[in-house]
Write a structure and sequence with these properties.
Structural class: alpha/beta
CATH architecture of the largest domain: Alpha-Beta Barrel
Distance between the termini: 54 Å
Helix content: 40-55%
CATH topology of the largest domain: TIM Barrel
CATH superfamily of the largest domain: Queuine tRNA-ribosyltransferase-like
Shape: globular
Oligomer: single chain
């Protein structure tokens, strides 16, 4: 492997790609989904839980770990892998998303972003150089370049100015690297919902020959039709020999649409956040376990899932846990949802290989099935 990230394309079915991403802490079969462990933990789940669920790679957050407990402390304690007892690959968001999500608590300048910490009220300055320093000190496999993520909608003029700043910040990130052999650097394509700007930015970033490329600036409030449209537009423009990462997506139906557009890597809080509100994704559609229809249901959460929650407990018991505010409830649903997502990606990978070799309709059939889950999720429950 030359460099810290090597992507190998194993099969293609139209635009969909089956690949293998090799990183310092392990190999990731793609398409892959990364559960989000913002604070160095996927909420309520242990590393053993994650491995049992089939997780290959997790995401953590630069900004939050910088604020507490501090990257230098984590580095002194052996790095993020040892700190959280996860021996597989880790990717860290650079903090650029906090430019968007904490916009009422920050000030953006050419130098970087000045944040007021929601924890102690102190102002902190996050620059491209600092973002790289933090991520390299954490010892992660993939560092994301610091970018400016805009809200939707934004005018072409505002989007262009922000996109150009993202490029300048990316080049500063590249110059700041001290561990290019052990921590990969992915660039983030911006350009909002403007095709010409997306095309321009892909061209600029492709010339820099980065370790990987992410599609940013989506899943920030735009309609789902725009998310799908600009994923389909942007993904095929990215270098074919590098991994393609769609940030912050998503629901199962969004993932399969993005896979069909040529995306390889995903992350989102949806599996665990939904679980904390009592919602499970299953092979028979959405289950909102708190609803009264499940109070006498002796069946498993998902009859086609072998996770601990589904193998051992009934829907009635899980509902009882939620209505009793027992902390075991969100843990069990989180375990199921994360397992469900990993099983879905395993199925997608197999369908790509099948579509490429023997059955061209394999992906189309899977897409119809996943879209039926969306219709079930949209249906009212009582």
């Amino acid at each position: 492997m030359s460099g810290p990230a090597h992507f190998e394309l194993l099969a293609t079915a139209e635009k969909a790609r089956r690949g293998r991403l090799t990183l310092p802490h392990g190999v990731v079969d793609t398409p892959a989904f990364m559960p989000v462990g913002t604070q160095g933990t996927v909420k309520s789940l242990t590393p053993v839980d994650l491995r049992d669920a089939g997780v290959q790679m997790v995401l953590s957050n630069t900004y939050h770990l910088w604020v507490r407990p501090g990257h230098e402390r984590i580095g002194a304690l052996g790095g993020l892998h040892r700190f959280m007892d996860w021996d597989g690959p880790i990717l860290t968001d650079s903090g650029g998303y906090q430019v968007f999500s904490l916009k009422d608590m920050n000030k953006v300048t050419e130098e970087g972003v000045k944040f007021r910490s929601p924890f102690d009220g102190q102002w902190r300055m996050l620059t491209p150089e600092k973002a790289v320093e933090i991520q390299e000190t954490l010892g992660v496999d993939v560092a994301m370049a610091f970018d400016e993520c805009l809200e939707w909608p934004a005018t072409p003029e505002r989007t262009l100015a922000s996109m150009n700043r993202t490029t300048r910040w990316l080049k500063r990130c590249m110059a700041a690297r001290r561990k290019p052999d052990t921590t990969a650097l992915f660039g983030i394509v911006q350009g909002g919902t403007h095709e010409a700007l997306r095309t321009q930015h892909v061209g600029e970033l492709a010339e820099l020959d980065l370790d990987g490329y992410a599609i940013g600036g989506l899943s920030v409030g735009e309609p789902r039709e725009e998310l799908v449209r600009f994923t389909e537009f942007t993904a095929p423009l990215l270098p074919a020999n590098k991994v393609r990462y769609l940030m912050g997506v998503g629901y199962p139906w969004d993932i399969i649409d993005a896979v069909l557009a040529g995306v390889d890597l995903f992350d989102c809080v949806i599996p665990t956040r939904s679980a904390r509100f009592g919602m499970a994704f299953t092979s028979v559609g959405k289950v909102t376990i708190k609803h009264t229809r499940y109070r006498d249901d002796a069946g498993p959460l998902d009859p086609n899932c072998a996770c601990y929650a589904c193998a051992r407990f009934s829907r009635a018991y899980l509902r009882h846990l939620f209505t009793s505010s027992e902390i075991l409830a969100p843990r069990l649903l989180s375990l199921h949802n994360v397992t469900f997502y990993q099983a879905l990606l395993t199925t997608i990978r197999a369908a790509i290989v099948t579509a490429a070799s023997t059955d061209p309709q394999a992906l189309t059939a899977l897409r119809r099935e996943v879209n039926s889950w969306q219709r079930s999720a949209d249906a009212p429950e009582t």
